[in-house]
Write a structure and sequence with these properties.
single chain; mainly alpha; hpI Integrase, Chain A; 2 domains; three-stranded antiparallel β-sheet; 3 strands; 54% helix
C-alpha cells in the first residue's frame, strides 16, 4: 500500500482497520480459517454482521473496498488462487451534497479570530490558505516553506498518493502567510524536523489535523452559525464559490487535485441548488 500504491498513512490505517474488522468477525463467530479457504458465504455473513452493528452504507462500502483490496493483493502475490470478493456488490450510495459556507459566513469566521495573539495570526493565515487554495487539512499541515513560490503566485502541494500539484495562491492568503512568517514564526523555537514546516504549534512542532479542527469548532461557536463544519468545509466552499463564479470545471479539478472529473462534478450539483434558491428568492412567480 505504501510502496506500490503510494497511499497516505491514514489510508493505510483505514485499510488495515477494515481487514481487522473481518478478522474480529471470524474470531467472534468461532471460525478458524486461513485466507485461501475464505468463501463467498463467509463474506456475506460478515456483511450481514456489519449491517446489524448499525453501520451506514458509506461505512460498509469502505469496509468492502478494504477487504477487496486485501484479496486483490493476495491474488497478485499468488497467496490465494481465487478472489472470493468478486461477487460482492457495493451498497448503493446516494450522492450527499457537502456543507458549504457562504462568503458572508467565511468573513464572519475570519472576523472572530483574535489577531492580537501569535496563535490568532497563525490561525488567520491557515484558514485563508485553506479557503484561498482549497487544500485538504493534511496538505495544509504538511505545507513547507520551500513549497511557497510567491513570486510566481503558486504553492506546491503534496496530495493523496504523494502526488504533487501547483496551486495558485491569491493575495489575501499570501499576505497572511507572510505576516505570520515575519511576525510570529521567526521568533519561535523550532523543534528538529519541523524547520521547513510553515504552520507550527506553540511548542514549535507541526500542527496536527485535530488541532485545526478544534480551532475551527471554537470559531464556529463564537459566530453562532448553525452548520456542522470541518476543515474540509473550506475546501468545499473554495470549489463551490469558483463554480458559482463561472470557473471552468477542468481548472477546478486541477486545483483540487481530483483524479477524476466526476468527483469535481458534485460542485455543479451545488451550483444548481444555488441557482434554484436564487430563483425562489428573487423571481416574482416563485
Amino acid at each position: 500500500m505504501q510502496l506500490e500504491r503510494s497511499l497516505s498513512p491514514n489510508s493505510v490505517e483505514a485499510y488495515l482497520h477494515d481487514v481487522e474488522k473481518f478478522r474480529q468477525f471470524l474470531e467472534v463467530t468461532g471460525v478458524t480459517i486461513e485466507p485461501e479457504k475464505i468463501e463467498l458465504h463467509h463474506l456475506q455473513e460478515f456483511l450481514k454482521w456489519v449491517t446489524e452493528l448499525g453501520m451506514t452504507a458509506r461505512t460498509q462500502a469502505r469496509i468492502i473496498s478494504g477487504i477487496k483490496g486485501f484479496f486483490k493483493f493476495l491474488l497478485l502475490e499468488n497467496l490465494v488462487n481465487k478472489d472470493p470478493t468478486e461477487l460482492i456488490q457495493m451498497p448503493k450510495l446516494g450522492r450527499k451534497l457537502p456543507t458549504v459556507l457562504s462568503i458572508e459566513e467565511i468573513d464572519m469566521l475570519m472576523g472572530k479570530i483574535d489577531l492580537s495573539t501569535p496563535e490568532g495570526k497563525r490561525n488567520k493565515a491557515m484558514l485563508e490558505t485553506l479557503y484561498g487554495c482549497g487544500l485538504r487539512v493534511s496538505e495544509l499541515v504538511d505545507l513547507k516553506i520551500s513549497d511557497l513560490y510567491f513570486e510566481d503566485g503558486f504553492i506546491k502541494v503534496t496530495g493523496k498518493g504523494d502526488k504533487e500539484r501547483m496551486v495558485p495562491i491569491g493575495r489575501i492568503a499570501k499576505d497572511e502567510i507572510c505576516y505570520y512568517l515575519e511576525d510570529v514564526r521567526i521568533h519561535m523555537t523550532v523543534i528538529k524536523d519541523s524547520e521547513d514546516v510553515v504552520f507550527l504549534n506553540r511548542r514549535g512542532r507541526k500542527m496536527t489535523r485535530v488541532m485545526v479542527f478544534i480551532i475551527i469548532k471554537n470559531l464556529l461557536r463564537k459566530t453562532g452559525i448553525k452548520k456542522q463544519i470541518s476543515p474540509h468545509t473550506f475546501r468545499h466552499s473554495f470549489a463551490t464559490h469558483l463554480v458559482e463564479g463561472g470557473a471552468d470545471l477542468r481548472a477546478v479539478q486541477e486545483m483540487l487535485g481530483h483524479e477524476s472529473i466526476t468527483t469535481t462534478e458534485i460542485y455543479t450539483h451545488l451550483d444548481r441548488a444555488y441557482l434554484r434558491n436564487t430563483i425562489i428568492q428573487y423571481h416574482p412567480r416563485s
